[in-house]
Request: fold
Amino acid sequence: MAYFTMAKDTLANLFRKPATRMYPSVVREIFPATRGHIAMDITTCIFCGICQKKCPTGAIKVDRANKTWEIERLACIACASCSDACPKQSLSMENTYTGPVTILEKPKTREEVSGA
Ligand code: SF4
Ligand code: SF4
Reply:
């Protein structure tokens, strides 16, 4: 009896659409209610550290002396506390597709971004 059930499932799955997508070549549509991810404009940041203090998960690290701003994406819960508190609107919630990365890049300083 189990063979019949298995054969039935096997045959049905031969003609069904796959249950998974070919990530990342097939881009998943964005749900309107999702908050997305934090986007950062380093050129307007004053490195005040408010976002770091507001972050409930400790995902943000601001180094005022070296003018660097880092976020640990896997620690971020997309609560938007940092973007709400930023006095320069340097942070925002971006609801767009984020492609995969293969290289772990160090955060850029403002000078590196502006080319100065
Ligand atoms: S709160 Fe805004 S201006 Fe201050 S460090 Fe964070 S991103 Fe920069
Ligand atoms: S969205 Fe929330 S969890 Fe993510 S970095 Fe900002 S304050 Fe931290």
Notes: The first strand starts at residue 37 and ends at 40. Helices lie at 2-15, 50-54, 81-85, 110-114.
